[in-house]
Design a protein that fits this description.
The chain has 101 residues and is mainly alpha-helical. It has one domain. Helix content is 41%, strand content 0%. The chain is globular, with a radius of gyration of 13 Å.
Length: 101
């Protein structure tokens, strides 16, 4: 299902990752953005670039998909927001504004 929602996410061996792997932190992507923004911390404020970096990321080779639960501490919000954007066809900011403002 994730690949149908977010086709570019399927690159670099992520084509078998499903939404439930992301939501229960068993996708192996717990370090997906760990180096992003290390030279320029303001990069992390660029929503679309963060989504692009996640789509280009690779799962950690030492974690088996669906087996080891390792918290996606840095990018869980972008990941969920990216899935929500693809499923709704709206920008995440727009969805938040509709829901809360």
């Amino acid at each position: 299902m994730l690949l149908r929602l977010w086709p570019e996410f399927g690159s670099n061996g992520k084509d078998i990752i499903k939404v439930h792997h992301m939501l229960n932190h068993t996708s192996g992507l717990h370090n997906a953005l760990v180096e992003f923004g290390s030279e320029n911390p303001m990069e992390i404020a660029d929503w679309d670039e963060c989504l692009r970096q996640i789509a280009m990321s690779k799962p950690e080779p030492e974690t088996e998909l669906g087996q080891q639960q390792v918290y996606h501490y840095l990018f869980f919000g972008w990941l969920c927001g990216g899935i929500i954007e693809r499923a709704s066809g709206k920008k995440f900011q727009e969805i938040l504004e509709e829901a809360f403002i």
